[in-house]
Each structure stands twice: as C-alpha cells, then as structure tokens.
Prior knowledge:
Helices cover 43% and strands 23% of the residues. The chain is α/β, with parallel strands linked by helices. The protein folds into 2 domains: 2-23 and 58-148, Dihydroxyacetone kinase, domain 1 (Rossmann fold); 152-276, Hypothetical Protein Tm841, Chain: A,domain 3 (2-Layer Sandwich). The strands form 4 sheets. The chain has a 6-stranded mixed sheet, sandwiched between helices. A 3-stranded antiparallel sheet has the order 4-3-5, covered by helices on one side. Strands 1-2 form a two-stranded parallel ribbon. Strand 9 and strand 10 form a beta hairpin. Helix 3 (61-74) packs across helix 4 (92-102) and helix 5 runs antiparallel to helix 6 (137-148).
Amino acid sequence: MTDSTAYIPKQALGDLNIPVIPPWVFWGDERFRDGVDIAPTDFYRRMQESKDFPTTSQPSLGEFIDFFQKIAGENDADAIVGVFVTSKTSGTFASACMAQEQLPELAIRVVDSFSTLMAQGYTALAAARAAADGKSLDQVVAAAEEMRDRAHLIFVVDTLEYLHRGGRIGGAKWLVGTALKIKPLLHMANGTVAPLVQVCTKRKAIARMLDVVEERLDGKQMAQASVIDANNSREADAIAAQVKERFGIATVSRTAVSPVIGAHAGPGTVAIAFYAE
Length: 277
C-alpha cells in the first residue's frame, strides 16, 4: 500500500493492486481527501482563482488503524508493506508507525520513501512486484528499499509564491526570487526538498533539468521515467517527448502532481521521476 501523494498512474500499475490511503486538504471550512474528493484539475483551478490558501494534513492514527484492518481483511493478507511520502516533510510515516504499534496481530512493515510523487511510486511498485512474485516479507521490504535508493525526483516550480506561502522558503528569498523571476530547479535529497540551481527562465530550467537527468544516469540506460505536472500538461507532454528522444526510452508515463503536494509546489510545476537499469 501507499499514500496518494505517489499518484501512481493506472498504466504503471498494470495488474498490481496497491491500496492507497489519502491525506487531507483543508480549504477554509471544507476538507477533501487527496485525489478522492477533489481532482487535480479542479484543485489547481481553484488555487489560481481563490484568495484563500489550502493547508494539508496526514491521515490520522485512527484512519490508519481502520485502513490497515480493512485492507488486511479484504485481501486476506499475510502481511502489509506500506511505502509512504518522506517523513522529513510529512507526518504520514509517523502516523503509520503509530498504527503499526497498535496492531500487533498484523504483520505490518513501513518504508519511508524519502521522496514523493512517482519516485515514491516506483518504490511502492517495486514492493508490489516482489509481493506478486511470491517473495518473503523481508524480500518485499528489501525490494522497496533498493528502489528507494535508485529513484530520482527533480522538479521546477513556476513561481516561488506557493513555497513561500507554505513556509518552505523565507520572505527574503521569496522577494528576491520573485523580483528576479527565478525558476528554481529542485530535487529530493535525503528526504527533503533541496535546490540544485536557479535560472531566470522556465525554458532554461527545464533544459538544465534534463542535463541533470543525464548526469545522474551516468552512462546507464534509463529504465523507467514519469513526467508529472500541476495543471501544466502542455509543457509536461513536451518534456516527455524530449525524454523519449534523448534517453531512448519507449514509454514515459504521465501523471499529475497530487493536490497535497501541489498545495506547496503550486500550479505550473513540472517534475521528472526516473531510475536507471
């Protein structure tokens, strides 16, 4: 199982069954389950139109307990392996760990992806493939951890406004970055969002992003890649085409930035998750 911030597309799932628990999005007096009660397209349109700013929260301890019990019963499960969004920026992993302690009758193992979006998704998929192949519980966890160490996530935000609103950058950086129209290239490093380079146009940032992908492949063949966008499908489709041509990969999956993640990254964000053979 995983949480909805991974936002794994159906074509990537194939025949695998990966139950998903959604975190929460709060908007004024309203609350939505991520990807269940509000779709990405509706979420980003509302972000651009609304003066209010959404906030997010992990599933509660009680929700995790209920979810673990539900999927164990529905799937006649011998064990559950949960792969979750990085613990460095979300409380989801901590909630899952507390629920694990409350359910000693279930064999539950939790894995910190130290990432999100499809880097987290690839980690969950690796675990699911190992389980489908009849691997032991330890082997399933090992498959997830091995993929976690191979998967990369790099992204470009369209504006620093949402990172500033969400407390991810300070006021001084926001003022300077906005004035200079900086488009920061970011990545997940040791479970946290970290800067790679700052450039002054989105086009240059995307070009640099693909250069970084090539550097990280280090001469190896790209195994899988996913291009992810926050209400920016036109730009993301163009990036996916470039990835296919440049790295000789037949299929690049396309998916959306989960609303819970998009609340901090903002509309226009584009990202690539990938790993090498």
